[in-house]
Write a structure and sequence with these properties.
The chain has about 140 residues and is mainly alpha-helical. The protein is built from 4 helices and 2 strands. The chain has a two-stranded antiparallel sheet with strand order 1-2.
Length: about 140
Amino acid sequence: MICSSHRIYANGYVSITLREYVSYLCTKFLDKSAANAPAHTHTEHLPTADGHTHVHSKESLRGIINRLSRVEGHVRGIKTMVQESRPCPDVLVQIAAVRGALDRVARIILDEHLTECVARAAEAGNIDVEIAQLKAALDRFLD
């Protein structure tokens, strides 16, 4: 999956686009057999209006909320920079950092959606509906 457009950092991490990551996760998920997935039911969670049940661990939710709180603080910092008439390149660098942070949050949410929500839909036999909803969300997100 690594090509010339990817950046490899000193810590070994590889920079890829969100679209490539989505493709990787979809391939990873679709290669698994739903029959081999462990039973995973949560009767204490009610489905949303469209019938989708969101089940996420408290640790996962806490991590996502913490990341979003940091992004929120970062955006407030950018607003202050603009109010103080800081140099445009400095502001743009900070905006790029916020975009990157939001992309990382999106990847976490997408990964959990594929490994939890889509897997649950496959077990329940309504994978087509879940995949259609995922495609619609990705179309809006990636454009």
